[in-house]
Amino acid sequence: MSAVPTAPLASPSDPSEVEIPAPARPMSGFRETLHFALRNRKLVFGLAMTSALLLIALIGPFIAQHGPLAYGTDLALRPTTHGGYWFGTTLQGQDVFAQFVNGLRLAFIVGAIGGGIAAVVAMAVGFTAGYRGGVVDEVLNMITNVVLVIPTFALLLVIAAYLQVRGVLPEAVFIGLTSWPWAARALRAQTFSLVSRDFVDMARLSGRSSRKIIVKEIAPNMSSYLFMMFILLFGSAILIAATLDFIGLGPSNTISLGQMMQLSVQNAALQLHLWWWFLPPGLAIMALVGSLYVMNVGLDEVFNPKLRDM
Amino acid sequence: MLRYFARKLFVYGLTFIVAVTVDWAIPHLMPGNPVLALMSRIQAQDPQVSQTMYHHYMRAFNLDLPLWKQYGYFWVSLAHGDLGTSIVQFPTPVSSIILHAAPYTLALLLPAILLSWYAGNKVGALAARRKVLDNSALPLSYALTATPYMWLAILLSWTLAVTWRVFPVGFAYDPTAIRTLSWTFVGNLAYHWFLPFLSLFLVAFGGWAIGMRNMIIYELESDYAHYLGALGAPQRLVRKYAFRNAVLPQVTGLALALGAILSGALVTEIVFSYPGLGFQIYNAITNQDYFVIQGIFLFIIIGVLVANFIIDIVYLIVDPRTRIGMEGGRS
Amino acid sequence: MALHVEDLRVYYRTLAGDVKALDGVSFDVADGEIMGLAGESGCGKSTLGKSLIRLDGRMRYVGGHVLLDGEELPIWDDAAMNAFRFRRISIVPQYAMSALNPIRKIGRMIHELLRSRGVSSNGIQKEIDRRLELVGLDRSVLDLYPIELSGGMKQRVVIVISTLLDPSLLIADEITSALDVSTQKAVAQTLVEFRDRRFVKSMIVITHDIAVLYQVADTILVMYAGKLAEKAPADEIVANPRHPYTRLLVSSLPEVGVRYAEKQLVGIPGRPPSLLEPPSGCRFRDRCPLATARCTQEPPWVEQDGRGIACWEASAAPAAALPVAVESG
Predict the structure, then answer these.
(1) Does residue A310 sit at the C interface (CB-CB below 8 Å)?
(2) Which of A267, B24, B116, C102 is deepest in the core (most CB within 10 A)?
(3) What's this model's pTM, rounded to 2 decimal places?
(4) What is the CATH number of the domain that holds A249?
(5) Burial of C100 (0-12, 13-18, 19+ CB in 10 A)
(6) Do residues C40 and C63 lie in contact, with contact meaning Cβ atoms separated by under 8 Å?
(7) In a domain, A21, yes or no
């Protein structure tokens, strides 16, 4: 894969080696950006799809007729209107639709929290390293490299297996604390290029503290880039969580999309052709993560005049 | 150049130490007496197993010794290749389990990584210059890279194996097959290997194709490309240069993508009951076979570090700038 | 004559409309002449230079003719232009320092380039060595990667490469802008030497720095807002500028020996007009101290005795004093 463990950037792969076509200038007009945004097919499509899924995730659990874990008497039922089992039931008689919307909701939560934490850490590390340089940069770089090289999945495996903590929140936190390195590197590179610009020198001369400069001068310039980065982290958090869940480290007392797939495989759903059990969860993830990626490409085109088709 | 490698080795060394430390530390983070907690979870029926496991744990944790001594012993046993004993597959040592499972995982991983990288780069480069290909290959690639590995495995298994019976549903070879080094057996192995390999290949391919396509587009806008064009050089020369330049970040991308493909391989094995490390880990987690988990984790770490090192060497070979940069430029 | 340009128009396509970067430019460059093209940013000089050899993505050929050695240059046809590029017309681009493939040894890149253009590299190797020596580079440079050379060295390598096939016309686009003054002088001298040795027949040197042109060019052409303002032999245009824009430009040059504590360096107030919707009539009239009502009509390009000018006032009363409209302090 190109840029990131599970997510491609719409730009050169290793951000620290090659310069990313970043927003060359601050957005010179919200209206202008909005104009391009609304006309960009990828952005519109991605946003629409993501919003639709979000809607399902929000409303779904309320309209589901049964709880996601509730056992029923109709086993392995095909999708039907009977009893409100619109997606059918599992081999244990559980409502697939209820599980599906529940899992979708969890996916959004994991994505937001995991992606959010990763973004915050990446920003803290990347900005500081890029702005301060010197020893601080060296140390942060070393830390970044170590966390980058460690196959975090394996690490999460060991941690989760031993600590027996099975919850969405801990899972999201784990993911957030381990998936930030590539983003930190990219942000560091961007900060380097911005730091040499005049307006930062002006701020320095006026005696502002480093933290203030980073927050007030540098970050806003990269706001579009940060947003795109968050979207990628969001998507990758969802994928990682699904994999962890599938392997048996998912949250207890609830059902996530990854767990649905795990249970279906465990219960030989493939051999029994219970397609309504194992197809929707993966499809949902693919649709969600895919639309996030497409949205990202669209955003890149909107924020980067050079990429816009004439 | 020595400095370059020294730096890298330092990071890898540090990473290894951190990983081993985490591996050692985690059980100690469990609340209460870790041995008793582990014992209570094992629920081993055979009293002889319980006894041996208890002694093993006590030795492993050396709870009577100061912490740093325990840590030291951990390293010592590691150096001896002693990764403990499996609980479920008692009395098989963990190292033996790993040795038997690793080849299968590598057989999936290596071809999948290399072929998907190669094919993805080629297709990505092609897509960058043909609009028709771009419009079809690109959305497909995005769909593939957004697909969770296990889901594609499920899909392929259900359609091609279970429903249409084109490929076997699982395992590395027919249980009834004779395990000799004959062509039939090798063929049988390949037959069972194909679907899991394909699943891994497809998802990884998507990511590479997208990355390469974007890199090529970026390189085609570079100054050297414009200069060549201004001097009337044919497109194929420009494309050739662009490709060579674009491949470089894809090489470093390999190191970044390792983790993802690895986890993908693990879950794919689960779907196909393919007896690699993933399959072992899955059983270990389900059965709380901790030493197996720990052992496989360490094995994976070592593998990833070695792979990273190899990629670093390769990168040094293909990018003259890194080599020159070390030796200092001449002005 | 080597180059004949007639009413050349090249616009840039943008979402807001066409930017009329080059809006009807005509001039000649004689065989053996080095012509300097000067003007501020956005006046169209770079567009002119680029359009003669290769239109980039956003440029759109709108009209006009270009003849090189009597033959029409099909600048609107990218494929057809290939026959002319490198052999008959060549360019040393603005980005010369990054124009070399970073992962190829220079010698190898040159050979691959020549081979791709159907030139056998065997015969030409000695010539490459000779020219490298001329610009002060050892032939060992061919075994190096671009990263191993300094900016100035890369600049010189690019000059050698671009002129290797002895083109009739060389376009030098802002090649001194990124250099320090002493290197600028060396590069300028190289250009003149290449012309004197007939490696290149004629040159167009594009820059915003008139001082450089003064050292190098035979003739200087001043552009403003997409159109020609004035043309004259180099020494004459500096000593005796006629167009108000040129006069302001020249007077804004720092003079050697003058201390600017007493006399303030004066710029030209105002800004060039937007080329999206350029004003009618003379495009300089909003900033021109000599503007009159007549200037709402576009002044014609009048050429006489080797000097050309597009200005109502200057053609009529060439020596009219510029009102000292700008105050110091």
Answers:
(1) yes
(2) B116
(3) 0.86
(4) 1.10.3720.10
(5) buried
(6) no
(7) no
Q: Is residue A166 in a domain?
A: yes
Q: Do you find a cis peptide bond into B91, omega within 30 degrees of 0?
A: yes
For the domain C3-316, what is the CATH code? Answer: 3.40.50.300
**Residues of C contacting chain B (CB within 8 angstroms):** 53-54, 56, 81-87, 90-91, 93, 95-96, 98-105, 112-113, 116-117, 144-145, 147-150, 153, 158, 161-162
As a whole number of angstroms, the longest Cα–Cα distance in chain A is 74
Q: Judge whether A220 lies within some domain.
A: yes
Q: What is the dihedral of CA C234, C240, C246, C248, to 10 degrees?
A: 130
In order along its 329 residues, chain C shows pLDDT tens digits of 689 999 999 998 887 788 888 988 999 999 999 999 998 888 888 899 999 999 887 889 999 999 999 999 999 999 999 999 999 999 999 888 899 999 999 999 999 999 999 998 778 999 999 999 999 999 999 999 999 998 889 999 999 999 999 999 999 999 887 778 888 888 888 999 999 999 999 999 998 888 888 889 999 999 988 889 899 998 888 888 888 888 887 776 666 666 556 555 566 777 788 888 888 888 888 888 877 888 888 888 888 888 888 888 776 655 555 555 444 43
Residue with tokens 């567009």: C47
Looking only at Cα atoms, what is the longest distance across chain B?
A: 83
Å between C156 CA and nearest CA of chain B: 13
Q: Do A12 and B308 touch (CB under 8 A)?
A: no
Question: What is the SS3 assignment for chain C?
Answer: CCEEEEEEEEEEEECCEEEEEEEEEEEEECCCCEEEEECCCCCCHHHHHHHHHCCCCCEEEEEEEEEECCEECCCCCHHHHCCCECCCEEEECCCHHHCCCCCCCHHHHHHHHHHHCCCCHHHHHHHHHHHHHHCCCCHHHHHCCHHHCCHHHHHHHHHHHHCCCCCCEEEEECCCCCCCHHHHHHHHHHHHHHHHCCCCCEEEEEECCHHHHHHHCCEEEEEECCEEEEEEEHHHHHHCCCCHHHHHHHHCCCCCCCCCCCCCCCCCCCCCCCCCCCCCCCCCCCCCCCCCHHHHCCCCCEEECCEEECCHHHHHCCCCCCCCCCCCC
Distances in Å between the Cα of C180 and the Cα atoms of B124, C137, C149, C291 are 42, 18, 16, 38
Domain ranges of chain C: 3-316
* Neighbors of chain C with 3 or more C-beta pairs under 8 Å: A, B
Nearest to C321 by CA among C299, C291, C293, C290: C290
Q: Is C297 left (phi over 0), alpha (psi -120 to 50) or beta?
A: beta
Cross-chain Cβ contact A293/B142 below 8 Å: yes
Count CB atoms within 10 A of the CB of residue B160.
17
**Residue A23, domain member (yes or no):** no
Tell me which residues of chain A, numbers 285 to 304, contact chain B at a CB-CB cutoff of 8 Å: 285-286, 289-290, 292-294, 297
Task: Note which residues in 182-201 of chain B have CB less than 8 A from chain A.
Answer: none
C93:B223 CB<8 A: yes
Question: Which of B218, B296, B307, B322 has its CA nearest to residue B256?
Answer: B307
CA-CA distance, B3 to B326, in Å (whole number)?
8
Going by C-beta distance under 8 Å and a sequence separation of 6 or more, which residues neighbour residue C93?
A: B223, B226, B227, B230, C99, C158, C173
Pick the residue of C11, C13, C14, C15 with the most A CBs within 10 A to test the interface with A by mutation: C15
Please report the residues numbered 14 through 53 in chain C whose beta carbons come closer than 8 angstroms to any beta carbon of chain A: 15
Domains and CATH numbers, chain B: 16-82 (no CATH), 104-330 (1.10.3720.10)
Token look-up 């009413």 returns C7
Q: By three-state DSSP, how is residue B93 classified?
A: strand
Q: How many domains would you assign to chain A?
A: 1
* Domain extent for A89: 31-70+80-307
